[in-house]
Amino acid sequence: MEYEKLFTSGRIGQLRLKNRIVMPAMGTSLATSTGEASDEIIKYYEERAKGGCGLIITEITRIDNETGVGTLNQLCAIEGKHVPRLERLARAVHRHDTKIFLQLHHPGRQSHSRLIDGRQIAAPSPITCKTIGEEPREMTTEEVEGLVKKFVIGAKIAQTAGIDGVELHGAHGYLIGQFMSPLTNRRTDKYGGSFNNRMRFVTEIILGIKHICGPKFPISVRIDGDEFVEGGITHEEAIKMARYLESIGVDAINVSSGTYESAVTIIEPISYKEGWKKHLAQGIKDNVKIPVIACNAIKTPEFAEKLLEEGNCDFVAVGRGQLADPQWGKKAMEGREKEIRPCIACLHCIEQLMNGKAVECAVNPRLGYEVEYTDYKKDGNGRRVVVIGGGPAGMEAARVLAEREYKVVLFEKKENLGGSVYLGSKPPCKERLQNLVDNMEYQIRQLGVDIRLGTAPTIEDIKALDPYSIFVAMGGNSIVPELPGVHGENVVLATDVLDKEMDVKNKKILVVGSGMTGLETAEYLAEKGNEVTVVEMVKEIGPGVHGSVLYDITTRLKKYGVEMIPRRQLVGIDKERAYVLNTFNNEKIAMEADYVVLSLGVGSVANSQFVQELEENFNNIRILGDASRPGKISNATQTGFDLAYTLE
């Protein structure tokens, strides 16, 4: 076996795990509104168990309804009514020889009053989280003591339901971590002050669980190896915490990092490399004898195996990798690494949750919909289907259709597959997107899809194939406003800059539009040594871009000296300058520019002449991806999957 360490059994306490792959806790919002395990969340976890995971740690599980609401549709372990559905969850996971822990959680100051009926949020001390922006009230001593009991009750509910163990969430700036951190615990009672007092809250929870559930019931504690905030838990402090937790009987330490105020260190954007924080786990592993689970931005089985070989940790936490592909472990064990659909660290999953929706994955349209989308119907019967366009929508549709035993012919006018994703891999730090293109291409080639590159089919070409159905995935057209000088030689599209790998240096370049394509194009040009300015018509840079992603890329742009100016609308261009309107005071401004790069979004081609000709000549036409509704990668893969899955 290639990954010997990865697929060696291990133990947490007296609990045996079949391998070293752990699915760490990640929010889903798939539970019922009353906090019970829904059919959707049970199927979601069972898919990962079936896919080869050794241990699953559930999403944040609520133990208190008064101040402890993390999300609305959140698993709960508060009262007896939660036991039956948790038992069904445990049995579903156990069917595949996978173990499961319930992660017990309270958000503390990292919550919102709107989640608790308008009541003020509560925390160890009245210190506002800058990301949340709401000042919490300080919990009374009696209230803290009551929460200790609620955590213990949550553990007993888990044990009663047949769950194998619990994890206490003391990382990411949540309540237990708030008590442990000197930044957020300024109390003067028995729960604050000295190190031992700051550890008292978690200590009482652990000792209470051991008393009620017995010493053999496993307890893991998730801690920050570093909070990455000034005045917070440092790596040295985390090592001290880990040694202390071991001394009071904890069975495993799960090492993560960051709080809401240093969020990019919790769920890393695409620019962060695998293993960027492995020193955090190493420091703790070197100082404790109990097993260490570690989050190290792991994407590939090769890197997971390397960490285990190096002795960096005892169990590897593969989170978003198992959202992107629930069979991550099974494919690795069977030597099918090329088939693993890679996580591209786009943060679509967390963005959905932050917007109050259920979890989704940009590259796995089945995520959260495992109940609706079960096995593919093998009813294609060799009927021919034409897919026009080899971007993510077209390739995903081709894959699903081929799985369903249709005979698929895919046309792509360029000499390479990938569409907008291929272009998106060109800017700095975006190379990982090419992994997705490679994976999708590998899958459809393995399935026997007839791929015709460098070919834009005519109506006659398609007629000669006599298709049962046609899938139009041609992408969209870049928006070009009719303005003076817009068709000049010094005006280029952002997509052309990336596609043709525009090679200019020491030029003044104005990028118009600060969506992700505009910002990434600005970085691409700035890295080559150009003086780049980005203007945006609306009042903020990066409209519609997720906060962590925006912070990540704008931080890099600032290092390159890129100026980003909102409230500037392009109104005209000549050979040496661009003219923009200050939308705040209507002042017209001239800006020197050797080149003007347009990144104003994409328009649909659903009503183009070619599409109309297709509709006049063929039946059963489906339009997907940007061709139908311009959007992100998630929209492309989702429409490609949905329309191919439901073809009749």
TrEMBL record:
Tell me if Oxidoreductase is a UniProt keyword of this record.
Answer: yes
What domain of life?
Bacteria
Query: Where does the NADH:flavin oxidoreductase/NADH oxidase N-terminal domain start and stop, copy by copy?
Result: 5-339
Task: Kindly list the cofactors needed.
Answer: [4Fe-4S] cluster; FMN
Which GO molecular function annotation, any one, does this entry have?
A: FMN binding
Q: What residues does the FAD/NAD(P)-binding domain cover?
A: 384-605
Keywords, comma-separated and alphabetical: Flavoprotein, FMN, Iron, Iron-sulfur, Metal-binding, Oxidoreductase
Enumerate the InterPro entries for this protein.
Answer: Aldolase_TIM, FAD/NAD-bd_sf, FAD/NAD-binding_dom, NADH:flavin_oxidoreductase, OxRdtase_FMN_N
Q: Tell me any Pfam family this protein matches.
A: Oxidored_FMN
Family to which this protein belongs: In the N-terminal section; belongs to the NADH:flavin oxidoreductase/NADH oxidase family.
The protein here is known as: NAD(P)-binding protein
User: Which species does the entry assign this protein to?
Assistant: Anaerosalibacter bizertensis
